[in-house]
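Example S7 (structure tokens).
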């Protein structure tokens, strides 16, 4: 049995991630990024990166906003962004794609339970979770 404190901590983590993603998304509506995909990447990463992603967005992500010259004196985002942060922002594309793939796969598996059987539940795997992991992997790697 899962301890109640662990469940509560997991729920709190989900709530913090959702709040961070919403805060980032609202700010992106006001200050969209120059690269359109980052308008999706930042909030999605906020779901699992929580406060660290929120801090990175306000510290470095705002430098790449279309109206960055009005927001910050560093209108050139490459000058104001350290190389490790550039690498992290690049890796965030991958994290966002995998996260979206997992969310879609879990939603489809919940809506259509037969997918677990197609993925090997009761034939390859005795646990449904392992079959759904196959679906998760296929969607995450394809994103």
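Recovered sequence:
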């Amino acid at each position: 049995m899962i301890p109640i404190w662990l469940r509560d901590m997991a729920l709190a983590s989900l709530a913090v991630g959702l709040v961070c993603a919403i805060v980032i998304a609202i700010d992106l509506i006001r200050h969209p990024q120059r690269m359109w995909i980052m308008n999706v990447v930042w909030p999605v990463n906020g779901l699992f990166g929580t406060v660290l992603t929120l801090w990175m967005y306000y510290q470095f992500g705002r430098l790449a906003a279309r109206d960055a010259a009005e927001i910050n004196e560093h209108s050139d985002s490459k000058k104001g962004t350290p190389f490790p942060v550039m690498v992290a922002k690049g890796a965030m594309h991958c994290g966002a794609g995998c996260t979206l793939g997992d969310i879609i796969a879990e939603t489809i598996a919940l809506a259509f339970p037969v997918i677990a059987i197609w993925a090997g539940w009761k034939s390859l795997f005795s646990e449904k979770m392992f079959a759904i992991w196959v679906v998760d992997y296929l969607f995450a790697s394809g994103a």
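Notes on this example. The mean pLDDT is 90.
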